From TrEMBL:
PROSITE patterns: TRYPSIN_DOM (PS50240), TRYPSIN_HIS (PS00134), TRYPSIN_SER (PS00135). Its EC number is 3.4.21.71. It is an enzyme of class 3 (hydrolase). It comes from Peucedramus taeniatus. Residues 1-222 form the Peptidase S1 domain. GO terms for biological process: proteolysis. This is pancreatic elastase II.
Length: 222
């Protein structure tokens, strides 16, 4: 999903999101600002084109995790849920993502895909077409080492990438990290949360994601 905000009568992509129920979209808390007007665009591939089967909806309500602190991204809780005004009809273009089992942890080097309409490189252009990047999971023990992210990364996060080549970037926030489970089905294990201020694809600074499996119970009670 593309989360867009309105400015001077035009809509602008700001973040990604994931449809997890026919009337709920999951995104990052840091994507939400109380001063902006949003819409959720589902079934999109090229943001600049008119695409059959796509639908734009205004949120009925937005629920940001109550522990989220915009001043402290490293604290975690970077998750928000957007309730849609109606149940959407699933189609070839619009599909639900599967949530991982609660508290499931990905092992090191699990291959996952990040997708989004974020910048193609640090300070680079924004694409019209949805992009995907293959990222390998970096386990918490490694990612929390001093030369990596140190104590900035928490166990409620997932790190992936850090090869200096492929990563998430500005505009990918809120979008999914999809990984294939043991049973072969794809599960959304992460929500794009933050990266290095030194650059998007910086060596030993993997993309950091909210670990979805740490929030199953929160998602269910919203």
């Amino acid at each position: 999903a593309s989360l867009q905000y309105k400015s001077n009568g035009k809509w602008y992509h700001t973040c990604g999101g994931t449809l997890i129920a026919t009337n709920w979209v999951m995104t990052a808390a840091h994507c939400i600002s109380s001063s902006l007007i949003y819409r959720v665009f589902l079934g999109k591939y090229n943001l600049a084109a008119e695409e059959e089967g796509s639908i734009a909806l205004s949120p009925e309500k937005i629920v940001v995790n109550e522990n989220w602190n915009p001043e402290d991204v490293a604290n975690g809780y970077d998750i928000a849920l957007i309730k849609l005004p109606e149940h959407v009809t699933l189609s070839d273009q619009i599909q639900l993502a599967c949530l991982p089992p609660a508290q499931s942890i990905l092992s090191s080097n699990t291959a996952c895909y990040v997708t989004g309409w974020g910048r193609l490189q640090t300070n680079g252009p924004l694409p019209d077409d949805l992009q995907q990047g293959l990222l390998l999971v970096v386990d918490y023990a490694t990612c929390s080492k001093p030369l990596w992210w140190g104590n900035i990364v928490k166990s409620t996060m997932v790190c992936a990438g850090g090869d200096g080549i492929t990563s998430s970037c500005n505009g990918d926030s809120g979008g999914p990290l999809n990984c294939q489970g043991a049973d072969g089905r794809w599960e959304v294990h992460g929500i794009v949360s933050f990266g290095s201020s030194l650059g998007c694809n910086y060596y030993h600074k993997p993309s950091v994601f909210t670990r979805v499996s740490a929030y199953n119970s929160w998602i269910e009670q919203v």
